[in-house]
Amino acid sequence: MTATTRTRLLPEERREQLLELGLRLFSGSTIDEISIDRLTEEAGVSRGLIYHYFGSKQGFREAVVQRAADDLIAQTAPPEGDDPIAKLLASLTAYVDYVIAHHEGYRSLVLAAAGGNEAVRGIYERARAAMIDRTFETPGVEDLLADTPATRLVVRGWVAFVEDTVLTWCDSPQGVTRGELARIVTDALPALVGIVR
Amino acid sequence: MTATTRTRLLPEERREQLLELGLRLFSGSTIDEISIDRLTEEAGVSRGLIYHYFGSKQGFREAVVQRAADDLIAQTAPPEGDDPIAKLLASLTAYVDYVIAHHEGYRSLVLAAAGGNEAVRGIYERARAAMIDRTFETPGVEDLLADTPATRLVVRGWVAFVEDTVLTWCDSPQGVTRGELARIVTDALPALVGIVR
Fold this sequence. Notes:
- 2 copies of one chain form a homodimer.
- Chain A is built from 10 helices and no strands.
- Chain A is an all-alpha fold.
- The first copy, chain A, has 2 domains: 2-62, Arc Repressor Mutant, subunit A; 64-196, Orthogonal Bundle (Tetracycline Repressor, domain 2).
- In chain A, helix 4 (47-54) crosses helix 5 and helix 5 (57-75) packs parallel to helix 8 (118-137).
- Chains A, B: This is TetR/AcrR family transcriptional regulator.
- Chains A, B: Residues 12-72 form the HTH tetR-type domain.
- Chains A, B: GO terms for molecular function: DNA-binding transcription factor activity; transcription cis-regulatory region binding.
- Chains A, B: InterPro entries: DesT_TetR_C, Homeodomain-like_sf, HTH-type_TetR-like_transc_reg, HTH_TetR.
């Protein structure tokens, strides 16, 4: 029956299935630990098929990291609406919630970016740049957030602050509640932007 | 003459010389790129001698990272004195100055910690913990900086903020001056601590 199910998948469905499985294996491990053996075993496919879709082991790993980055961007998009404060706050909260909810995968992404090869670092850097650009380009936001090099530096640094604070908290909350954590990292942005005004 | 100079070095001087050279080679590269070949060439010593002092290539690399971490701790020690605000500010400024001045080596340290093995990550984490502990244990500082889990989380996150902001600025200052950068990262600590009060 597995074989029947397998043959029924269209190529794009199969690729999708492999990526989803890769993301799951990636969460909580480093990029180099994404095991092609475990992947072939769990997906019931041959190594050849993985090479067919992704070119190489490295190609597969990069596709998984790219998918993790795409997920982050998609899930933290500002909602539709006219109120720039509400949009900014919603996007900010979505980002914080995303990092807290996906902390294992997020840690893997951050580690992959720091320790990985140029291609992986590029994926992470582009995702981070896209999030920051999007923040500054939200219509109406210019009154709240002046688009200057100093402000951009601070917003980027705030992302590093969020990453570190959330991942440290996930390892060892020390009595700080999830609500307190969310408030700290959300309030940190206006606090930091305030110092460059 | 080189040979004569070489033979005159005492073992601890030789070890010191190799570490200093290793630090220089480390600055601007990743830990895996510290080339033992270049080291033997520049120091005019044999590979055997390096293994003699450090056990293995990995042992040497770890000793270099440990030395980088020790330097950071030593150069950012709070000065003698009775005024806790002055001591805290001096230590804070020293840290910011250190990261700006040694940004290449510091980037290597951060990358090594993120991508490196457990031993290297441990060295970096202990250095960061030591700096944070020292901040909270400065006599008289408790009125300025309550020692709570939330405050510790924020101070640790601030270190990540400083690292990211300074290293991004070093790559591309975009017209932000060194003075502005120093003010941003220094002012960021009270701004962040303020939100958990």
